[in-house]
Amino acid sequence: MLDPLAGVETERTQLEMVRRRPLPFPPEPAAAIGINLTRWSLDRADHREGRRNLLLKTLDPLGLGFDS
């Protein structure tokens, strides 16, 4: 990390993954929508005695669910 900041060219600073900026993943609008939708779904599950909607049921097998 210090080599590119100092302007020193080494074998590692010539790598494609070092020279190019990565694409943000997920893109910010999609991340915000996904986070807010998940928060809304969790709130609904709390008010519906734990009954989870399709989004939460989909996230659970992927290991992305929020069990409490």
The count of helical stretches stands at: 4
Q: Can you give the helix content as a percent range?
A: 40-55%
Radius of gyration equals 20 Å
Please give the alpha-carbon distance between the first and last residues: 40 Å
Spatial shape: rod-shaped
Strand tally is: 0
> Strand percentage, roughly?
under 5%
Given the helix and strand composition, which structural class is it? mainly alpha
Describe the main β-sheet briefly. Answer: none
Uncertain residue segments: none
Could you spell the SSE succession in H and E letters?
A: HHHH
Mean of all residue-level pLDDT scores: 86
For the structure shown, list the relevant keywords.
single chain; 68 residues; mainly alpha
Overview in brief:
By secondary structure, this protein is an all-alpha fold. It is 51% helix and 0% strand.
